[in-house]
Specification:
heterodimer, A: 428 residues, alpha/beta, Rossmann fold, seven-stranded mixed beta sheet, 14 helices, globular, B: 577 residues, D-amino Acid Aminotransferase, Chain A, domain 1, nine-stranded mixed beta sheet, six-stranded mixed beta sheet, 15 helices
Chain lengths: 428, 577
């Protein structure tokens, strides 16, 4: 979804305009949905460890909350811009709508680089961010979550500040909390598992049995690892995986023809998700260039690392064996590559459907937090499977009926659901 | 992947009724049902022509891979290795998590079904030809009527985990060891099947449950073994398979009642309690109990439910007679007279036709389980719940009446079951001078101890006790489980005055008996032949407990059973020939 080098919000609006035209949306609805409902841009003063006060810039964008409280992460990134946050907030609206959970779309961020901030300084940013927004976010209006360079500990600082301001316990204010501190079982697995639930259903549609397929995966972070695990559980074989080598400052692919073993690889992976090349070689893995993952003779590609990884230049290198691409990452495929894959008849499960397992589980976390009663993992994953499966089939059925790519069909479903909610509320 | 169509998240489907979740084996019970279902599809009209339409109730099988992956992903293996207690195993399984790719199918099942479900084991060894595991693993019924899908899902998962856990329970482990499968891994599948029945207030149960065998191990009166036998009970089939009181009949002579001495005895000797699935307000949460959602009720409740109209008679104390139906005041008697005598429902012809078709299908004697629902003003429903082969020995053995009274005969019976010859030296017997009906539970444990010693020594035994072996009612006999007497190769059921002379009818117990080829010799107290206690007491003692003795004969004893004449004896070879 996020596009490097171009204005992400322009891209998001262009995508929306295309589908709005297909849906023949009325001008007011188009105008409402192509802009965020609300935006907050504010200063976050923080006293640093050296005693000086530094002012950070914070944002929160609530793109649309017609279907429910806004939902979206908080990013800590030095290159954060309001337009990036706007685009990501809009994509959250569509993502929540495509899996039919009663939430809207939001996103937040702070321009900062946590690599150069102490824990105490990061805590100061978290608390400062909440102080600025405490009356504009909350369990019934806007529910933040971890995102780029934020984690469960940041969420607990923010929750603590929110509860201090409002004088009560509101675990439903924020998601991504650690299990035992208001978090949900299954959250760690949810995004990767969600990707595989959609793959499983797509394979049925393609008439392929999972045990007849191989996959190549870009990335070895949380999403990729759990996607690999579940894909293997349903019978598939992952022959190649790539990861970022922090020392060499480049990506590297690791190949094993008979199938990689995620547990074995996790054993030689550093805390940044980088796989140790020498140790992997000792385990029998071939070491290949970073983009070798995309030219493997497999049936499935699962890009689960960064945006813009499959573009017009490298798409032709994708092998003819590939029948399915599932976007575990946000925006890994450029529109040019989309065209190439469509011409070759490759089925592509779009990011905001394939990786919606994460937000779906966040929704479950919020539900549990609001009830202050927590489900066992079976309950969470059982619901997740049904939600993802139902969402995939709704999109696939529309795509088939109207001869659309899955991405367009998913947009049509999302945007029409949000537009309908706006109409029914009498907004437009 | 599996033997059945993959569960496509539909349950009550017109085309398909049997589905599978997860790969691997579907186990003996599910394989039997799959064959039964195919048989019904092929010959259903022919069977229905005999009276009732037969169907196999919708079911989903969780393949054995599902169990293996559950065990592996939750790291449960050490529990088996260290021989943990049943409770610990059940608790560990209860806390464990279902594999992520399969949990959605179970969730979907819970969302689709809003009626009682039976969760039963279907293992590779259980119910397979020659492998009588029936009754070793647990079964759980769940009401499936909670308004919240999450609550239904939770109850389903708990039941599945409990049945899985029972694979590793001490009884099952002992059974595996006793049957020469020690160290072998069981491939455990689980069947989730709709329960056939009707709701009556807070209870849900079938009007009639039945077990029918095409070969009768216990022919009484003028019945012949090849005529087969049908056991019927009100409510869930648990009554029959647990060896409770039920009504037995020969399909060839359905009007012939079991040999009760008097009408009064018939009242006392027929079913007075029945099992139902509890569908009322949720009972206390107790996921590690088999009967969490089961309830036992009496005939008054069944009558109030309208469930006795087609199956009961009434005892008239004044005339000491039993009258079919409920037209009079008096104790009700579950003798199925309206069906069997008045033929108000073509149940027996249907079972007969079905048994014949199943025999042809399996190429030999069979046992089936079924349930019948009789809703008023709507068609009856006959559900086939199980179909499995029975083993009947073909060896030609002749035991004449004279041979029963020859010198050197230690045990003689004119109600013997099995067929063939064997030798043994070890005898475990309940001492008739120390036996007390109220001590049968303790006796069962004493026998278990002695049995363990025999197993460890790799020895078989002749086991002699009083009353019904494997009785669910401790006042009617010794309530042993099969694994507690698994070293017995010859089983003698002697009677003392005051104990029921009726031989055991526990379905699973006797399925095991026949499948292991264990000889069974029933010795009623009044029988002219009996047990030579003096001889037994004189043999060298190996071990003894409060009520039970284990002796080893100086020379081998020979046992033989003539299956056709139903005569059997154990004798001293050096004295008799």
């Amino acid at each position: 979804m996020a596009i490097r080098g171009v204005n992400a919000f322009d891209v998001a609006q262009a995508q929306f305009d295309k589908v709005a035209a297909m849906l023949d949306l009325d001008p007011a609805t188009r105008e409402l949905l192509r802009q965020p409902m609300r935006e907050y841009s504010f200063a976050v003063p923080v006293r640093m460890d050296d005693g000086a006060v530094r002012i950070f810039r914070g944002f929160r964008v609530q793109h649309n909350d017609a279907r429910g409280p806004a939902k979206g992460g908080i990013r800590f990134h030095p290159q954060e811009t309001l337009d990036t946050v706007r685009a990501l907030a809009m994509w959250m609206t569509w993502k929540c709508a495509v899996v039919d959970i009663p939430l809207g779309g939001g996103k937040g961020g702070v321009i900062c680089d946590p690599h150069h901030l102490s824990e105490r300084e990061q805590e100061g940013i978290c608390r400062g961010w909440v102080r600025q927004l405490a009356r504009n976010v909350g369990p019934v209006s806007d529910v933040p979550a971890p995102d780029v360079m934020t984690s469960g500990k940041h969420m607990l600082w923010m929750l603590d500040e929110f509860e201090a301001i409002h004088g009560g316990h509101y675990p439903g204010f924020i998601t991504g909390k650690p299990v035992g501190a208001g978090g949900s079982q299954g959250r760690t697995e949810a995004t990767g598992y969600g990707v595989v639930y959609t793959i499983r259903e797509a394979l049925k549609q393609l008439g392929l049995r999972p045990d007849q397929t191989r996959a190549s995966v870009q990335g070895f972070g949380n999403v990729a690892q759990y996607a690999i695990r579940l894909y293997r559980e349903i019978g598939g074989t992952v022959t190649c995986v790539s990861s970022w080598d922090n020392e060499a400052q480049q990506a590297v692919s690791f190949r094993k023809g008979e199938g990689i073993d995620p547990d074995e690889l996790v054993g030689v992976t550093d805390r940044f998700g980088g796989i140790d090349q020498a140790k992997a070689r000792d385990l029998g893995y071939e070491i290949l260039p970073g983009d070798a993952w995309l030219e493997q003779p497999v049936e499935i590609l699962i890009p689960s690392a960064l945006e813009n990884q499959l573009d017009g230049d490298n798409a032709p290198r994708v092998k003819p064996t590939v029948k399915l691409i599932a976007e575990g990452a946000n925006g890994p495929t450029t529109p040019d590559a989309d065209k190439v894959f469509a011409e070759r008849g490759i089925l592509l499960i779009p990011d905001f459907l394939a990786n919606a397992g994460g937000v779906t589980c966040s929704y479950y976390e919020q539900v549990q937090s609001n009830m202050n009663m927590y489900w066992p993992k079976d309950e969470v994953l059982g619901r997740l499977d049904l939600t993802m499966t139902a969402a995939y089939h709704a999109v696939a059925e529309l795509a088939q009926r109207r001869k659309l790519a899955l991405r367009d069909a998913a947009y049509v479903i999302s945007i029409s659901r949000v537009a309908q909610a706006c109409h029914e509320r009498g907004w437009v | 992947m599996g033997a059945l169509p993959r569960f496509a998240r539909r349950f009550f489907d017109e085309q398909e009724r049997l589905f599978q979740i997860g790969g691997g084996s579907i186990g003996g019970k599910a394989a039997g049902l799959a064959r039964g279902s195919a048989l019904v599809a092929r010959r259903g009209e022919e069977i229905a022509a005999a009276g009732l339409a037969v169907d196999v109730p919708s079911l989903v099988v969780l393949g054995s891979d599902f169990f293996d992956r559950f065990v592996e992903s939750n790291g449960l293996e050490p529990l088996l290795e260290e021989g943990a207690s049943d409770r610990r195993i059940a608790e560990a399984f209860h806390r464990a998590t279902i594999p992520g790719d399969l949990v959605g199918d179970l969730r979907s099942l819970a969302e689709l079904v809003r009626q009682p479900l039976a969760v039963r084991s279907s293992s590779r060894l259980e119910d397979a030809l020659g492998e009588p595991f029936a009754g070793v693993y647990r079964t759980k019924m769940i009401p499936g009527n909670a308004p919240d899908a999450g609550a239904r899902f939770a109850a389903l998962l708990e039941a599945v985990k409990f049945v899985w856990a029972s694979t590793w329970f001490a009884g099952a482990r002992a059974y595996l060891a006793a049957t020469g499968h020690r160290g072998e891994r069981e491939q455990m599948a689980v069947i989730v099947q709709e329960v056939v029945g009707r709701r009556h207030g807070d209870r849900f149960y079938p009007d009639v449950s039945g077990v029918a065998r095409s070969w009768n191990f216990y022919p009484t009166g003028g019945a012949r073994p090849e005529e087969g036998v049908i056991a019927l009970a009100l409510g869930l089939g648990k009554t029959i398979v647990d060896g409770g009181v039920c009504w037995s009949l020969s399909p060839a002579r359905p009007r012939l009642a079991p040999p009760f001495a008097s009408a009064r005895e018939r009242v006392d000797g027929t079913q007075s309690r029945f099992w139902a699935v509890w569908v009322g307000p949720p009972p206390p949460h107790d996921p590690m109990t088999e009967v969490e959602f089961l309830v036992e009720a009496g005939l008054a409740e069944a009558e109030a439910d309208g469930a006795l109209d087609a199956i009961a008679s009434t005892y008239d104390p004044a005339s000491d007679r039993i009258w079919p139906g409920l037209g009079r005041q008096g104790p009700r008697v579950i003798d199925f007279a309206p069906i069997l005598v008045d033929r108000s429902l073509p149940l027996v012809p249907t079972v007969t036709a079905l048994l014949a078709a199943c025999e042809e299908e399996l190429g030999g004697p069979v046992e089936i389980e079924f349930a019948l629902s009789l809703p008023p003003r709507r068609p009856s429903r006959f559900g086939l719940l199980q179909m499995r082969p029975l083993l009947v020995s073909a060896e030609r053995v002749e035991v004449g009446e004279r041979q029963l009274v020859e010198p050197g005969v230690v045990v003689a019976s004119v109600e013997a079951l099995g067929n063939g010859r064997r030798e043994l030296r070890d005898v475990v017997f309940v001492d008739p001078e120390r036996f007390e009906a109220r001590a049968t539970r303790a006796i069962a444990l004493e026998i278990e101890t002695l049995n363990r010693g025999l197993l460890e020594a790799g020895r078989d035994c002749l086991l002699i006790g009083f009353g019904r072996w494997g009785s669910a009612d401790p006042w009617l006999g010794i309530p042993v489980r099969w694994d507690q007497i698994s070293s017995a190769r010859v089983l003698v059921e002697a009677a003392l005055p005051g104990m029921s002379p009726e031989p055991s009818q526990g379905s699973h117990f006797f399925h095991n008996l026949s499948s292991f080829g264990v000889f069974y010799l029933n010795v009623p107290a009044a029988d002219r032949a009996g047990v030579d206690w003096e001889y037994l007491r004189a043999q060298p003692e190996i071990a003894a407990t409060e009520h039970v003795r284990h002796v080893r004969a100086a020379r081998p004893l020979a046992a033989e059973v003539d299956g056709r004449a139903r005569r059997g004896r154990v004798y001293r070879r050096e004295v008799s020939s």
